Amino acid sequence: MSELIKWFEKRRETKALQTIQRHLALTTGIVEDLEKAVDASIKGDEKEMLGCIQRVASSEREADALRRKVMDDVSKGELSPVDREDLMHLVKRVDMVADWSRESTRVLNALPMKQVPKQIQKEFMKMVRSVKGCAISLQKCVNKMMTKPEEALQAADAVEREEEKVDDIHENARKLLGKEELPKAGIAILVSQLFEAMEMIADACEDACDQVRIIMIRK
To answer: What's the pLDDT tens digit per position in 116-160?
Structure first.
């Protein structure tokens, strides 16, 4: 077992670990708000969409602050340089989930959803729900690493399976985008950018769970 896992087991109540768990929960909430924003946009509820986007923006700034706090707390601790670096890499990868969620809302806010074909709208919802599944699985994975390390690798596999679902949805969406007639080239670009940004959220989840694997197997 890695020294970092032993450190988790001995210090589960430390501020650094509490901050990591807060950061994880906040990041999952950001993805959930992204899902609500996409749903509201498709339903034509602009007020609800803008409210969700505002929450994502605010939470993403808070997540950045928590990431910096974790970095500061870990830098002052007794962890070895390698373990410190592993933990910092994990937090940065989780933070990318929040960053790409924020980017997704920026694209969503610019996209005139009423001009997007219904079939593509359905693919948006499929993808954002699957992306939310990735984020929830990632939160479970990192929490397992800190509380039940023997279950962490199986939890990492669950994140990877969710990410593969997102890849499949994105592949189908590309084919659909090639068939559907969109009124303007700009709308086609924004549709493609939104799919890409949401896929990057899932990729960031996978990157973070890969870092969990590195931490778990390091001797």
So the answer is: 999 999 999 999 999 999 999 999 999 888 778 888 888 899 999
- Superfamily name and number for 3-217: Phosphate transport system protein phou homolog 2; domain 2 (1.20.58.220)
Specify whether the CB–CB gap between 173 and 116 falls below 8 A: no
pTM of the complete model = 0.90
